[in-house]
Specification:
The protein is an alpha+beta fold and about 200 residues long. It is built from five helices and four strands. It has helices spanning about 1-20, 25-45, 70-85, 115-125, 160-170, and strands spanning about 55-60, 90-95, 100-105, 140. Helix 3 (about 70-85) packs across helix 4.
């Protein structure tokens, strides 16, 4: 330990002695380092809120009239199976609810988002024949990230039943004309039922 400390002090003494003997060169080196640091500080891009989410593609599938179990078995599971193992995919997550299926496909860091969407779109074409024929084709949600969630609103009432609040919430927003607006989502507590009307036209 003493030998290491002595060698370190000796090296520092030699550097200081060289700097004192070559004052002009030392000043030029210091000025260059100062100018380089100032240039780097002024030109380095600064992201105050960095995007911490991996490149993600969201697949939305409507399944009107289907219960949650049917959506999971007939819609969500085939899509997940087709997307698992795709090039660059690191994780596939899903959520099934009454009448809708959402699948999130996360790609490796650095994957170009448009290439990721192309991979998912190609897989959806292959899995289309496995889905029920009377359902609309799955669609890709707009390109967003967790940093794009700007505002979360909640509806509460002491007089209006929860079912009426849950039923009226999707049409209560007036956000269609906001510049830069991509999409909105709505949801309610899992135990709150939703009122729905289902009709069948005779052939």
């Amino acid at each position: 330990m003493a030998t290491s400390t002595s060698s370190g002090a000796g090296l520092m003494d030699r550097v200081i002695a060289w700097s004192l003997r070559n004052r002009l060169i030392t000043l030029f080196i210091a000025a260059g380092l100062l100018a380089g640091g100032a240039y780097a500080a002024l030109t380095t891009p600064v992201d105050v809120f960095p995007d911490l989410t991996a490149p993600t593609v969201t697949v939305l599938s409507e399944a009107h009239g289907m219960a949650t179990e049917e959506v999971e078995r007939l819609v969500t599971f085939p899509i997940e199976t087709a997307l698992n193992g795709s090039a660059g995919v690191r994780r596939v997550r899903s959520a099934s609810s009454q009448g809708i299926s959402i699948v999130w496909v996360e790609f490796e860091w650095g994957t170009e988002i448009y290439r990721a969407r192309q991979v998912v779109a190609e897989k959806l074409l292959l899995v289309a024949y496995q889905l029920p024929e009377d359902l609309p084709s799955p669609v890709l949600a707009p390109i967003t990230s967790i940093m794009g969630e700007i505002m979360v609103l909640g509806l509460t009432s002491e007089t209006v039943p929860e079912m009426e609040l849950r039923t009226g919430a999707p049409g209560s927003g007036a956000d269609g004309g906001l510049p830069g607006h991509s999409a909105r989502g709505h949801g309610g507590h899992g135990t709150v039922e939703r009122r729905g009307v289902r009709g069948r036209v005779p052939p």
